[in-house]
Amino acid sequence: MTDYLPIRTDRLTLRRYRETDFDDLLKLQSNDDVTRFLLYDPKTPEEVRETLAKRLADVTMDAEGQALTLAVELTETGQHLGEVTLFVHSVEQRTGEIGYVFHPESGGHGYAAEASVELLRLGFEHFGMHRVIARLDARNTGSVKLLERLGMRREAHFVRNEFLKGEWVDELVYAMLADEWAAKN
Question: pTM here?
Answer without folding.
Answer: 0.95
